[in-house]
Design a protein that fits this description.
The protein has 618 residues and is mostly beta strands. It is built from seven helices and 38 strands. Strands 4, 5, 6, 7, 10, 11 and 38 form a seven-stranded antiparallel β-sheet that branches. Strand 36 and strand 37 form a beta hairpin. Helix 3 crosses helix 4 and helix 3 runs antiparallel to helix 5. The longest helix is centred in the first third of the chain and has 13 residues. The radius of gyration is 27 Å and the shape is globular. One 2-acetamido-2-deoxy-beta-D-glucopyranose binds next to loops.
């Protein structure tokens, strides 16, 4: 077996034939695409098969040198995986599954888990098409998950594999986006309406939350909003950090003008039912074909609050802005009216995160048992189809977990590699049902190694938040359900005096934030009794109490065996081998003509190059 394998590898290495002009691979189009670098030199197209857990990438780079695509963890390149390939000047092709042993050195993986589908070079581009499993059995390969993936792309000007920082890029992408906009229905009678702040002078402060109240279009009968799109004015730098649209209930008299959302006039924070969330990195969002936001009936909101969070870190004066949200609506009604449920840790005033923490977890509980009585009508089971996760800069991961009758049902949504710069509404692969009585727990994971001071919950980017928005149907009147721990208990656990919440929070400033105390605080916050605040669209607030349940981690599924290669002793999960793809072997024109090249590379101790040939029909 080992001999056979060695033979195959050698055969692969020396296979030779010209590949130019042969464009190979699946004929089905790859639905998703993105440029990976600011100069638009690297273009990635991809698609995936959720059932088979396979992903296909086509990387097109303006170079005649090598190209590489992989996954990194975002904070260092060490350990990142990178699939590399290229076309040699004589037309031969090389392709290999590798990883980074330090910031710029590549090493071939013992197990080859990427399958080459096409590699071509023309006057302008080198194009590499390959597929790989979401999760191979090779510990050198990073998993492709439903989290934010830091896609690593690199290329060279020649065929010498070495990472050059100037030609290495990382881009956060949500690769496993379930719904492609092109797959959704576009109604024929679309009407467009812009919700925007008009000619607003952005203050020179670092952080501004500007709020204004705007009417929704007045329609004589029921319509559905089915799509939202950010409407951004481009300044020299990105100053709009996020935009939220809140639906207003009937209860309140709304102020006019533009003002600080959370400033002196509390009226500017009225209306708490989020209907649209957009944040840096996000794009437009279209609802599934059976869901829309209802307008035009007596039960519908007539006004919204538009909240725009500006970050003016360079304190630029005199910048005017007219950003907002463009909404698309139609009289062609969908099946369901949608709603948004806001969950998480109540932002103010109890939330704190110690400084210097490698890892700190915050928990916010929601108990839905009071939903019925607060709703004013029976609450139908909530069908969740999408979500948006939100923390600020210290956030590293979030998840929403569902419990029924004391038993954990599932993780509804999560991101283990959250990126503040990529916040967007995401669709769930399967709709999730929440029944009144269920408990929902939000866990937020922070890192504050770069901070010397306590971080508090708050609206500014340097404060923190821990929020999950669930998009669901059919709508009800509940707008948010958020928890926070008994801070007096937490203070006592840390050896501090406190007789009310305010003193409890003040006491946190007295704690010496050693590693031990950070762990103690995390544990105390989790053990403490939670107060759960539930709010309706008409600003009715009620509370209840509860305890944070344990989160049982979801076990990972089995890995997929590799398609060839050798296993290194340190690979704790030995990959099995299937035969190398037939076409690769059968189509070869084996000569020893190209051995010197391989030998040269071996000689330099650089890499093990797998020379493969490409012929039509692979
Ligand atoms: C922004 O652009 C304007 C012209 O469009 C220019 O006058 C100004 O100096 C720029 N500011 C910065 C900070 O680059
Ligand atoms: C809102 O007000 C309108 C009339 O102003 C009324 O018909 C409707 O029932 C109210 N909706 C709710 C939910 O109270
Ligand atoms: C929870 O358990 C009780 C008693 O076992 C049962 O009556 C109830 O229907 C359960 N609730 C749900 C939502 O399954
Ligand atoms: C919202 O509350 C009103 C009463 O305030 C009730 O009539 C209505 O049915 C509720 N809406 C939903 C969707 O449950
Ligand atoms: C919770 O509700 C009770 C009674 O409805 C009220 O007295 C109390 O102030 C509320 N607590 C909070 C934290 O809102
Ligand atoms: C193999 O390559 C040689 C020279 O490159 C060529 O003459 C020959 O026709 C090729 N054979 C096949 C089967 O492609």
């Amino acid at each position: 077996m080992a001999c056979d394998l060695l033979f195959r590898l050698l055969l692969l290495m020396v296979l030779a034939a010209t590949s130019q002009g042969n464009h190979l691979g699946p004929t089905s189009r790859l639905r998703y695409s993105r440029f990976l670098d600011p100069s638009n030199v690297i273009f990635l197209r991809w698609d995936f098969d959720l059932e088979a857990e396979m992903i296909t990438f086509e990387l097109q780079v303006r170079t005649a040198g090598w190209v590489g695509l992989g996954v990194t963890n975002g904070y260092t390149f060490v350990g990142a995986d990178l699939v590399v390939g290229g076309v040699l000047p004589d037309g031969n092709v090389y392709f290999s599954d590798q990883h980074l042993v330090d910031e710029d050195t590549l090493e071939e993986d013992g197990s080859q888990d990427a399958k080459l589908l096409g590699l071509t070079e023309d006057d302008v581009y080198t194009t590499m098409l390959f597929s790989r499993p979401f999760r191979s059995c090779d510990p050198h390969d990073k998993d492709i998950t439903s989290d934010t993936v830091r896609v690593l792309a690199a290329y060279g000007l020649d065929d010498m594999l070495k990472l050059d920082p100037e030609r290495t890029f990382v881009k956060s992408i949500f690769l496993l986006q379930i719904v492609h906009p092109d797959d959704l229905d576009v109604p024929e009678d679309t009407i467009i309406h812009d919700l925007e702040i008009t000619d607003f002078l952005i203050p020179e402060d670092d952080t501004t939350y500007a709020c204004t109240f705007l009417p929704l279009p007045i329609v004589s009968k029921k319509h559905h909003i089915y799509k939202f799109e950010p409407k951004l004015v481009y300044h020299n730098e990105t100053m709009v950090h996020h935009i939220l649209v809140y639906a207003c209930g009937n209860a309140s008299a709304l102020p006019t003008g533009i003002s600080d959302c959370y400033g002196a006039d509390p009226a500017f924070s009225l209306c708490s039912q989020v209907i649209v969330g957009w944040a840096v990195g996000g794009t437009s969002y279209q609802f599934p074909d059976d869901v829309g936001v209802s307008i035009g009936t007596p039960l519908d909101p007539q006004w919204i609050r538009l909240e725009i969070h500006y970050s003016n870190f360079h304190n630029l004066p005199g910048v005017h802005d007219t950003s907002g949200i463009r909404m698309y609506y139609t009289a062609h009604l969908r099946k369901y009216d949608m709603g948004v449920l806001q969950l998480g840790f109540l932002t103010f005033p109890i939330h704190f995160i110690p400084p210097g923490a490698e890892s700190f977890m915050s928990y916010g509980l929601c108990k839905t048992e009071k939903f019925e009585e607060m709703n004013g009508a029976p609450v139908p089971d909530i069908q969740v189809y999408g979500y948006l996760l939100h923390t600020h800069l210290a956030g590293r991961a979030l998840q929403a977990v569902q419990y029924r009758n004391g038993t954990q049902l599932r993780t509804i949504c999560k991101d283990d590699t959250y990126d503040f710069n990529l916040q967007e509404t995401r669709d769930l692969p399967h709709r999730v049902e929440i029944k009144p009585g269920d408990e929902l727990l939000i866990e937020c994971h922070y890192q504050t190694l770069d901070r010397d001071f306590l971080t508090f919950g708050g609206p500014s980017t340097i404060n923190e938040m821990c929020l999950v928005f669930l998009f669901y149907y059919p709508r009800n009147n509940i707008s948010s359900c958020m928890g926070y721990p008994d801070i007096i208990y937490v203070a006592h656990e840390l050896g501090e005096e406190a007789s009310d919440s305010m003193e409890g929070m003040m006491a946190m400033n007295n704690v010496e934030w050693t590693l031990e105390n950070i762990k103690k605080a995390e544990k105390a916050c989790k053990e403490a009794q939670q107060t759960v605040l539930i709010k309706t669209i008409d600003e009715v607030v009620e509370n209840t109490t509860g305890w944070i349940p344990e989160i049982i981690p979801t076990p990972r599924g089995p890995c997929l065996e590799s398609s060839g290669g050798k296993v290194e002793p340190q690979d704790e999960t030995p990959a099995g081998f299937r035969a190398a793809p037939m076409a690769l072997l059968a189509s070869g024109n084996a000569t020893l003509r190209h051995l010197p090249m391989a030998a040269l590379l071996f000689g330099q101790g650089a890499f093990f190059w797998l020379l493969a040939t490409l012929q039509a029909g692979i």
